[in-house]
Structures are given as C-alpha cells and as structure tokens.
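Exercise 7. Given the encoded structure of a 119-residue chain, write a plausible sequence.
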C-alpha cells in the first residue's frame, strides 16, 4: 500500500513539474517572438504620430544597446525618478544594479516621444 501511494505522489509531482515547464516554455516563446519584432510600433501606426493644437509628436522605439552612454544614463535617471518609489512599495523592491543591467540588455527596447519643433 505504501509503495503505490508513493508512486502516485511521484506521478503527481512529475505532472506538476511538466505543467510548470510547459507554461515556462510558452512564456519564453512569447518573449522571443516579441524580441524578434524590430519595430513594435509598425503594428500600431495610429500611435506613431500625434498632431493636435500645434503639438506634433513622433513615437519611436530604440534598443537601449544602440543608445549612447549618456542617453542610457539619462534613461536610468528617468526610470529612477519615476519608478523607484513604486518598485520600493511593491514586493519586487528597487534593485539599482538589476535595473542598470536591464537597461543595458541588447533586447531591451526604449519607447520615446520626439517633439517636432516648429521653426
């Protein structure tokens, strides 16, 4: 009786592990597909440009790996100024080193609005 019960628990444990592995693989596939898209705004053309009341903006995406070091520092300052408190209040917490690594990843994309000045 003990052996069958042990075998049943092992089978359940294996089934849970396989289900978790399947979910993880699905998530990895979604992330890989997203990283393969060079310009996510291409699929959202109505968001790429804004022009109203003499305010003209263009939205662009850039991989942070392609930014100059000074621009990455500016981005890190922006992230810290706007998000640090929210991260500190969450269960994730604020981890500066992790955020810096995230900003430097070759797959990280930065979305920005460019103001087109009227000259």
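Solution.
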């Amino acid at each position: 009786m003990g052996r069958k019960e042990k075998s049943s628990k092992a089978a359940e444990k294996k089934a849970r592990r396989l289900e978790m592995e399947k979910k993880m693989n699905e998530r990895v596939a979604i992330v890989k597909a997203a990283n393969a898209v060079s310009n996510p705004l291409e699929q959202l053309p109505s968001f790429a440009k804004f022009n109203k009341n003499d305010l003209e903006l263009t939205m662009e995406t850039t991989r942070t790996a392609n930014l100059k070091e000074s621009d990455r520092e500016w981005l890190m300052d922006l992230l810290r100024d706007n998000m640090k408190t929210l991260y500190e209040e969450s269960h994730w917490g604020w981890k500066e080193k992790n955020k810096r690594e995230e900003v430097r990843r070759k797959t990280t994309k930065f979305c920005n609005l460019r103001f087109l000045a009227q000259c």
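Remark. The longest helix spans residues 2-36. Students should compare their own answers with the one above.
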